[in-house]
Amino acid sequence: ELPAPLLDDTCGKELGDEAAAVKSGDFQDSMKIAWRYQNLPKMEASPTTYTKFGHYYDVSKKMSPELRQSVKWHSFYLHEELSFEPKMKAWNMNSGYARLLQSIQRIISQEGFDGSDPQKKQRNVLRIGIQSLGSVLWGDGVCCSDTPEDPHSLTKFLYVLRGLLRKSLSACIITVPAHLIQNKAIMERVTNLSDMVVGLESFIGSERETNPLYKDYHGLVHVHQIPRLNSLICDVSDTKDLAFRLKRKQFTIERLHLPPDLSDTVSRASKQDLAGSAKLLSSGCGAMAIGKKHLDF
Amino acid sequence: QGQFTLLRDTRTDGSFLVHHFLSFYLRAGCKVCFVALLQSFSHYSIVAQKLGVSLAAAKERGQLVFLEGLKSCLDLLFGEEEQPGQPSPLQFLSGSCRDLRALFDFVRVSLTPADGDSWKGPVLLVDDLSVLLSLGAAPVAVLDFIHYCRVSVCCQLKGNIVVLVHSNEDSEDEENELVVNSLCHHSDLILWAEGLATGFCKDVHGQMKIIKRLSLRQAGEQDVVQIYQYKIQDRNVTFFAPGLSAAVL
């Protein structure tokens, strides 16, 4: 069910709704998940004309079996896993997460990503992708109520995962259905335990869908946190206002531009609406500062 | 000495203060016990080197006791059966006990002066306390741990404690707010790094409120509050009076 990689200039976003429902997690050595795509020019016959950033996929086609088989990858599907190994000590954590962590740790040490085997000159990085962490697919109740029975398994999982990632050559990207987690305290803790946090906010179903400010876009991209590792400073970009656009074969992230105010009723009321929306635009990157107050002149 | 300093950050990352205190106390010749819960040893080591201190050397000569929380957690969960005499400092993770006694014992043993030690005053540094709540420790357990550390390090050993916590305005994390507020009441000095209320700025990374809690020790005294703005650079942090950033002058 993986989308086919593309060698020309079109690109696509992995919509993967089926994938989310069926598989609980994938470990892919070769799956390079490119969440961000640069603005792409129109389709061209020659693929080398433009600089490419990341990798591009066509969601309407499947990845060929030969390509998939030629690469070493591991998957983890919770309901197919063997039951919890009895010799492991009590972990005091949701068993789904515990099994996932054991599986990751096993792959790291068996494949030599932790540098334990000097024979294996591991040049590659283990790329880990985990979908819908925190959802009921993992047996976690944090999405079900405001006061879940076990609010700590998710954050404990992230802490142990962080430990595994720090001591091995690996990187991990996780999706979390934040809109389902009602307990905001848990989301704050999840953010603090992550290196980089990016949020996608869709306009569908919200009042912003009809807001003239956002008519060209399908949603906003919020960069909540960027990593500040091995250094006092971090690499903050100047642009804080990002939006995304989802077309049939393209998912682009762009700087949000205010459209010109060309409406017939350029009245006080409409200006206030736009000002209200503009206030929400000035939320900055969490690692540096977030301003909620808008300076009125 | 016997000072309890609270490092607090809101809407920004206050970890630069932790790096500062770590290199400051090591350079001053103090024995430091660093409970580093959130980052790896190499992260602190690389930054400390930019600030002119070698953590590896400090560890080797016994001046620095470094508890790498992430590694300790992995050893506890994936490692062999632990010896009964040497419980893991993060033992509460396995659920066998609900308090942080093992962590306190670790701190106490690390900072109790051994024969032949010639270090100036012991220092306990914690980065960051809020993580303990995420790992399932109850707020009361965290506050008890800090209390025992104060008695042991500040009162008995006449040392200093520096602790970093995160807090957010409009935070819904009540447990965290409880811990932070309680610690504020008992701190001698609070360094509060905040993101600017007006939003992100390239030249001014945030504002630092320094609160000297004179009212804690001396009845009738007023707390002294000073406010500076700061900018973080690769090897140091510059402070200046509000509105007087170099970019503006």
Automatic annotation (TrEMBL), chain A:
Keyword Nucleotide-binding: no
Pathway: tRNA modification; 5-methoxycarbonylmethyl-2-thiouridine-tRNA biosynthesis
Coiled coil: none
Protein's cellular compartments: Cytoplasm; Nucleus
Primary location class: cytoplasm
Keyword Cytoplasm in annotation: yes
GO cellular component: cytoplasm; elongator holoenzyme complex; transcription elongation factor complex
Keyword line: Cytoplasm, Nucleus, tRNA processing
Top-level division of the source organism's lineage: Eukaryota
Secretion signal, residue range per the UniProt entry: none
Classification via InterPro entries: Elongator_complex_protein_4, P-loop_NTPase
CDD domains noted in UniProt: Elp4 (cd19494)
Pfam family, one: PAXNEB
GO biological process: tRNA wobble uridine modification
Function: Component of the elongator complex which is required for multiple tRNA modifications, including mcm5U (5-methoxycarbonylmethyl uridine), mcm5s2U (5-methoxycarbonylmethyl-2-thiouridine), and ncm5U (5-carbamoylmethyl uridine). The elongator complex catalyzes the formation of carboxymethyluridine in the wobble base at position 34 in tRNAs.
PANTHER family per record: ELONGATOR COMPLEX PROTEIN 4, PAX6 NEIGHBOR PROTEIN PAXNEB
Family, as annotated: Belongs to the ELP4 family.
Protein name listed in UniProt: Elongator complex protein 4
Organism: Sinosuthora webbiana
Gene this chain is encoded by: Elp4
UniProtKB/TrEMBL annotation, chain B:
Pfam families linked to this entry: ELP6 (PF09807)
Keywords assigned by UniProt, alphabetized: Cytoplasm, Nucleus, tRNA processing
Top-level taxon of the source organism: Eukaryota
Keyword tRNA processing listed: yes
One GO term describing the cellular component: nucleus
Pathway(s) where this gene product acts: tRNA modification; 5-methoxycarbonylmethyl-2-thiouridine-tRNA biosynthesis
Keyword hit for Signal: no
UniProt xrefs under CDD domains: Elp6
A single GO BP: tRNA wobble uridine modification
Compartment(s): Cytoplasm; Nucleus
Family: Belongs to the ELP6 family.
The protein's name: Elongator complex protein 6
Natural source organism: Sinosuthora webbiana
Lineage, broadest ranks: Eukaryota, Metazoa, Chordata, Craniata, Vertebrata
Annotated gene: Elp6
